[in-house]
Amino acid sequence: MESSTILPLSHFSFLSQKPHGTSIGSFPLNQWSPTSQKTRLNCQKMYVPGFGEASPEAKAAKNLHNLFTYVAVRVVNAQLESYNTEAHKELMEFMERHSLNDGDKFCAALMRESSRHKTLAMRILEVRSAYCKRDFEWDNLERLAKKMADESNTRLMRDYVLETSHVETEK
């Protein structure tokens, strides 16, 4: 039976605001001495280089925004297929000529195509907003993203260990 002791993070002086003892640069010399007072933990988020114009979250939000446009186009197109085949055909033809990679550019171009296309674009915008606000499962996204990261990391590490620790057997 294993046992372990879990100490609160405030017991380690390197996490406190004022380190004990003298320091060299920004590293306290006696990092592991416990402190009896409660200290506030100052957490900072990880710095991610290479995202100068926007944070990773902002880039993910932009990609989700484009995904919501794609979903809305698919929903509207499926609806049109069953009750307005002419509009369905026009939307399909428009989709062949215009990329859905940038949802806003797609909708802007659709609005300017004709008055009939403007109506389709307005419907897509309405569905996009409704899907984002009411139907997209944000909690499920977080759960799936974390699960995928963990499973992928485990698989990649396992494959690497198996690949590098393989010992050739002599015959």
UniProtKB/TrEMBL annotation:
The entry's keywords: Carbon dioxide fixation, Chaperone, Photosynthesis
GO biological process: carbon fixation; photosynthesis; ribulose bisphosphate carboxylase complex assembly
Tree of life domain: Eukaryota
An example Gene Ontology molecular-function term: protein folding chaperone
Any Pfam family the entry gives: RbcX
InterPro entries named among the record's database cross-references: Chaperonin_RbcX_sf, Chaperonin_RcbX
Keyword Chaperone: yes
Name of this chain's protein: Chaperonin-like RBCX protein 1, chloroplastic
Organism: Lactuca saligna
